[in-house]
Specification:
elongated; seven-stranded mixed sheet; 20 strands; Transferase(Phosphotransferase), domain 1; alpha+beta
């Protein structure tokens, strides 16, 4: 099975996603486990000492204090382990309570160190391992109050292991977690139940070093929850503890970097572990993976500082309709927000201005001016190009208010661009030559829409699809922009003139076709059920409007079968047996062949796909007719190259008067590839498809 395309959204990890309709939670969990297994094999990099340096405090004073605190804590720990008497300069009479606390923690840790064989159960390892973390936390708390630090915190373990996290979306049970608290916090008031929204890092423990791979897979599986539950999470940390061997992991958008093993049974290994925890305590918050442009206001309320060049504007988040659902990729989030505080006593909720904010990590070039696929620039281009055109009066599309790359102030007071290079820092980033460069971007836009679950009939769906593809066609014709990611998550409903309209969003994967070589991109983009055949195959064929039309056809079929909510849900046994499920499961090759087979002939498409639409959906008969017309225009069009019809590969046709002479030495011909090669054919078929959809929308609007 093929996993982990980047930057694609090949499998929606959200249990509530439309592409997961008809699957229960156990099936989603199995997919996530398979994804984690593949990600460990594909994304885990070789160990580097420089991973520790990512959390080396940027502030010079904190850095110096960190070094002192590591020496103090590590030496104190070794004295307890050796049984040395405490010297007066380390533990005076006034520090007796501190000394007693550390002694109790050290006894627990030392008892575990002295064991020659692993304990019979993993849970017996948690307390002594947590004791080491508590030991470091007490040392940090003991030494820091006298220092006016710019950043400091306590790193603490959650004591109750193997309990379901309260905010898990799939009943997952982490072994342990690290959380952070203010330096003056009461250490007796640490929460007893794990919460992903509160976690700094997930820790997965195993009884033996032989089980390290299993621990890594579980860590990858669990860490996804940090991105999902923390709207300000940029990158993540995690640890595995296999018997007496600890290892820290840095999760970025495309790769996972790990430290060398830290042997907690040796002084050097314990020193490295203490250093990591102390640096966690003294580094800047952005070095832990948090976005410093997010300000938590308490009770789940957030304020976001958005950037547009040198301009800054604050917005108050009122809802988070889209969360980061995958461990890797763009980590796209969407916030509904207001430029004024909606929670003040004199605020009238009905009159509060609302905007949509998109936060994502996009593939980019280091030079912003050379970034030809910059989404903000793309959106400003089509806004400018379409503005004033007569046909644009009825087009629905998002308009940028402000947007651009995000910056933050580092520990030395310098304004820094938020990107993968600055996260990893020079020693680590320079040790790997193939690290994908991503830039953190935020876009504030209007209007605010809602997802497709608000649809009430197939008639509305057809009209929404017509709005989307009318705008899509204008983009291609007037702006040379190809969207490349038609899916349920990229279409919103907006209210205009008393009816539901469709708006296409998310131009992160869009291409400017006027730039030479752009349409030759072979990367897979999209969500599996809606990806075109050429897209699934990462074909050499140029990407064209027909790929997006093909995706729209798949989307209409998917919604016609499963609908957009549970109102027309059918029995699981019936849904599980549907042929259309083959568009979502298996390898990309298997999905490709399933789609080819279903589209190959009018009869196959009608019997296996269209006739399986839910008959209870209002207006289903119109949708049933429409998708068959779209399939015929896309696959069987008379405009296509003669003898190249259907959706499956075929033997080369017999040459006619020299036609197809260049094909004679080929084994077969791919009709999807051939249609994409001729610009005139692409334009003619696209125009035909738009007319069919437009006619259907006008007809259904009167019913």
């Amino acid at each position: 099975m093929t996993y982990g395309f980047t930057p694609s959204k090949h499998s929606s990890q959200s249990a509530g996603a439309l592409s997961n309709t008809s699957r229960d939670l156990s099936e989603i969990q199995e997919e996530r486990k398979g994804q984690a297994e593949a990600d460990v094999a594909e994304r885990l990099r070789e160990a580097r000492d420089t991973v520790h340096d990512v959390v080396k405090p940027e502030n010079p004073m904190n850095d110096s204090l960190s070094d002192e605190l590591v020496i103090f804590t590590a030496e104190l720990l070794e004295r307890y382990i050796r049984g040395d008497a405490m010297p007066q300069d380390l533990c005076t009479r006034e520090d007796k309570e501190f000394h007693d606390t550390l002694m109790n923690l050290a006894v627990s840790f030392m008892a575990w160190l002295s064991e020659s064989s692993p304990p019979p159960r993993e849970s017996l390892m948690y307390k002594p391992k947590n004791a080491l973390v508590w030991f470091v936390a007490h040392c940090v708390k003991h030494k820091l109050p006298a220092h006016p630090l710019t950043a400091s915190r306590l790193v603490l373990p959650v004591e109750s292991p193997d309990r379901k996290a309260g905010d898990s979306d799939d009943r997952t049970r982490p072994d342990m977690m690290f959380i952070t608290r203010l330096i003056d916090s009461d250490l007796d008031k640490v929460p007893k139940r794990p919460s992903y929204s509160d976690a700094l890092a997930i820790i997965e423990a195993k009884r033996s070093e032989r089980h390290e791979l299993e621990a890594q897979r579980q860590l990858f599986y669990q860490t996804r929850q940090l991105y999902f539950n923390q709207p300000n999470r940029r990158f993540a940390w995690g640890l595995t503890l296999c018997n007496k061997t600890a290892c820290a992991y840095l999760f970025t958008n495309d790769d996972v970097f790990r430290t060398p093993d830290m042997d907690l049974g040796s002084p050097s290994g314990r020193h490295s572990f203490v250093q990591l925890l102390v640096r966690f305590s003294l580094c800047e918050t952005h070095q832990l993976g948090y976005d410093s442009n997010f300000v938590e206001l308490g009770s789940g309320k957030w304020k976001i500082i958005c950037h547009d060049g040198d301009d800054r504007k604050e917005y108050y988040v009122t809802d988070i309709p889209v969360r980061a659902e995958r461990l890797f990729g763009r980590h796209t989030r969407c916030f509904i927000a207001s430029p004024t505080d909606p929670w003040t006593s004199d605020s009238n909720e009905e009159n509060v201005e609302r905007v949509a904010i998109k936060d994502a990590w996009s593939r980019a070039t280091e030079s912003e001016k050379d970034d030809v696929r910059d989404e903000v620039a793309m959106m400003r281009k089509f806004d400018t190009e379409l503005c004033g055109m007569k046909e644009s009066d009825d087009l629905i599309y998002p308009e940028v208010m402000i947007g651009g790359r995000i910056t933050y102030v580092n520990g030395e007071g310098a304004v820094t661009s938020d990107n993968t290079k600055h996260i990893l820092k020079a020693p680590l980033s320079e040790s790997f030559s193939d690290i994908c460069f991503r830039a953190h971007k935020v876009i504030v836009m209007t209007p605010v829409g809602r997802d497709l679950s608000g649809l009430e009939s197939a008639n509305e769906l057809i009209q929404v699809a017509a709005d989307v593809m009318q705008f899509h066609s204008a983009l291609v014709k007037h702006c040379n922009i190809l969207h490349r990611d038609i899916s349920d998550s990229n279409i919103l409903l907006v209210e205009k003139d008393g009816r539901q309209r469709g708006m296409l969003i998310d131009f992160d994967y869009a291409l400017d076709m006027s730039i030479e070589g752009q349409t030759a991109h072979k990367d897979r983009t999209g969500t599996l059920p809606f990806m075109s055949v050429n897209n699934l195959l990462a074909s050499d064929a140029p990407r064209t409007a027909l790929d997006d039309w093909e995706s729209m056809l798949y989307l209409l079929c998917w919604i016609g079968t499963f609908w957009v909510n549970d109102e027309y849900k059918r029995a699981d046994e019936f849904q599980d047996a549907l042929q259309i499920n083959r568009w979502r499961t298996g390898s990309t090759e298997a999905i490709t062949e399933a789609k080819r087979g279903h589209l190959h002939s009018k009869k196959l498409f009608a019997s296996q796909i269209a006739k399986k639409f839910h008959p209870g959906i209002p207006g289903c008969k119109y949708l049933h007719t429409l998708v068959q017309q779209l399939r015929s225009a896309l696959i069987d069009s008379d405009i296509s190259i003669p003898n190249i019809c259907g959706a499956s590969t075929m033997d080369p046709p017999e040459p006619e008067d020299g036609d197809f002479e260049s094909y004679l030495d080929q084994k077969d011909i791919d009709p999807f590839f051939e249609r994409a090669r001729d610009k005139d054919i692409v334009e003619s078929i696209s125009a035909c498809l738009l007319k069919i959809l437009g006619d259907a929308a006008r007809k259904t609007s009167t019913n």
